[in-house]
Amino acid sequence: MTTTPAPPPLDNPGHSSLNGPHAHFAERRGRVARYPVDVSPWLALPDDAGPGDWADLAALAGPGGELALAAIDPALPPGWEATFSIPGVQMTGEAVQGAHDEEAVRLGPADVPEMLDLVARTRPGPFLDRTHELGTYLGIRREGVLVAMAGERLHPPGWTEISAVCTDPAHRGQGLARRLVDAVAAGIRDRGEIPCLHGSASNTGAIRLYEQMGFVLRRTTVFRGVRAPAAGPGATRTPTTTG
């Protein structure tokens, strides 16, 4: 008897994360899962999702609720609406070893207001009140003020995504983003994992920086927002559980 090999974890990173290292965050219905709404917008949808999975996803979202698909682009069933579509890239750092940085400090719950303020001014991507719980976040301060940060988000088995890379506009050009990406990557390597990245295909400056650091393009992809039907059978399915 032959078995079908499991797809590579990065092919569906949200599904791999919420059914792997991030399973403790998962709010589940059947085969689908999502992060809590104050942690991350990404969800876990199986590659072979059928009508029952989409009904479960509608129940998780609630009538008219919005969700985000991380690096997957399934056909939407009737009643679902696409809210945004962003061409993106997925990059991997098999050759990236990283380097610890003495100036990089670990950020935690007490730093969230500053982290949210920096994100609001630099817009590196989704970052919410509890996003810092997904992994290690590091920052660099100037005169006590947080001016740059980077951290860990999706966690497919064997990989960790580096995310929320941002620098205050007044402090750009000093190499802070590169130093923080290196520092986060070093921590990932210390665990025996490999760093990876997702980004907008239009952010050519960041992509060029990551290539200079040793990251390589694995594939082009898309990030999509979707809205559940305003009402439907999924709204009455079994209650959400957290696993």
From TrEMBL:
InterPro entries: Acyl_CoA_acyltransferase, GCN5-like_dom, GNAT_dom, YpeA/RimI_acetyltransf. Residues 1-11 have a biased composition (Pro residues). Residues 1-22 are annotated as: Disordered. It comes from the Bacteria. PROSITE patterns: GNAT. Pfam families: FR47. Signal peptide: none annotated. Keywords: Acyltransferase, Transferase. SUPFAM superfamilies: Acyl-CoA N-acyltransferases (Nat). Residues 102-239 form the N-acetyltransferase domain. This is GNAT family N-acetyltransferase.
